[in-house]
């Protein structure tokens, strides 16, 4: 028991089952018997001696009876004890970062931590870390140096304020013996992969007021990425509970980090057409400043803008430029998107490069339709507004005067094969097969086989029903039966929402937004359709891009394709089993309708205009993050533009920014997708941050490449960034404590007020113990000695 404790209340209880009334009777009998015994003693005794012996005998019997009853003392004590000091050490991965210390003050702070100068030395005269064996210590190294600094003597001085309790913090906290300085480097190793600084302190405060510390000393960089409680809420709680936070901020601020997270550079750009390059970028650890964004074609800046920094947020900006005729070149050119912090261009800069082609010609398109139905009217308007397309229209049942008026209308189908082959693509609407002669159908078949594009838009009258068993039916990616649709429906048609297939999600043709999530949202919100042309089967090698949400293929448990594609020879062919995309213009005009048909034209017509590509490679997501595997999809063709049929294809991943001692490449295998000739898939592990290139040569006439970057998530423990000084400083001062850098640490313990707390506790003290038994022996022995002295037996 503490000697400084005070007993406030006490009482004695008996734990024995021996009856108390029996004990009282025995006590009375023992007293009476003792008196009677000593008064009948034969040896003559003085009265004083007689009563001394009687008293000793009665005391002995009394103590024996007391022991038999097993007495217990119930007491309430009050004690005062010093409140503890909690020392929280950040043991997360961000603390293993090595900060670049450009500022002389930051260099001086390292010298103070490592005891190269006195702790109270002003920063401007503290020197630098040039004398250290490790010029770029980690943040954990600084913490260890501070704790072991003999002139700071933090551990001993904190212990003088109260019992010191150490904790390592990560996602949770665990106790650590901070007195064992030899073991501290082993346990303080930065292995925790998440920081929950605020949550840990909040959980530790869930104690009774009497158990709370006098102060909490925190050593951290403040990069919390897992807490659900806010900084202000924790500060208010610490203030209300009377627990000030004294925080040593570890690391540097103001170095900054800049990264272009995504830049969508169009691969093909047209002369005299505005090119928009959306750029998503992020700047960390800079409180203020500006960033210069620029777009370069080879070595020439073609677009630029200066933007104010919003620290810690993804920022979105567009760079626009209009290619001129002088910008064209026979081959590919290099376009670079650059971001740099104004005034610190040498240190904070990032760039993304991509090969592009500048085209000085328009896509020549021939649109043939039977009658001007709604789909034709609105596609025609969109095409006539598109400066990248030179459109010609042929209406079989159009106004003869309009057809003879000249461009953009054509009176008759091209008279010669050469005239037809001057076009890059054809769109055939709901046109009667009889409009084309057998020879013209063969021309179209050869046109596609040689690289021309073809789109057929199904209709209720002729397409594709009238083309059964014709040369053009061989070109289409679908098999079908002729169906006669009634002029008027007997039952009102049911509205349906077309659904993008898995393959369609990876195809830019159906991209109505710049992100996968936004694109999915838009497709779900578009006005529905009511009609479609049911096919019977996809041809081998054909893919379904858009499908019906309910209808199935006959004899197959597969969704009914609404938009199907395949290559016939070198040319891409699309079959559109719908005629109601014009409904998308409701409240949106050409926002989605025009984008969709523009992408159809470029994807189908550009291969003929620019030369077909033997491979298409695409990441499942536009952005890849370390530790999150990403699938890669590839559509591969041989020299004859036939889909590859090999079960496996070898490829190589090269790390473009690998260090001298790091592996620069590794081989991977792409596996074929079942029932999808030419489609291959593989999974990238994304184990390390860096810039990479996926290169495929196996089975291809020429190599195909895909450049991509693996980045850290913004909330990743190792994501670049300095100390969160503003948040730590505000947390410390709002809680009633203080914030410290290395030059302030010598004042830390002086600002902590040692406190004590009075606590009350009840305690049972067993009185039937060896001390009481010893007293029985003492009284018994005393009586025996006194009898001997009195010559008694």
TrEMBL record:
Gene3D superfamilies reported in the protein's UniProt record: 3.40.50.880, von Willebrand factor, type A domain (3.40.50.410)
Keywords of the record: Membrane, Transmembrane, Transmembrane helix
Extent of the signal sequence: none
Coiled-coil segments: none
Top-level taxon of the source organism: Bacteria
Transmembrane parts of this sequence: 20-39, 51-73, 768-786
InterPro entries xref list: Class_I_gatase-like, vWFA_dom_sf
PANTHER family associated with the record: BLL2462 PROTEIN (PTHR37947:SF1)
Protein name as annotated: VWFA domain-containing protein
Organism listed in the record: Telmatocola sphagniphila
Organism classification: Bacteria, Pseudomonadati, Planctomycetota, Planctomycetia, Gemmatales
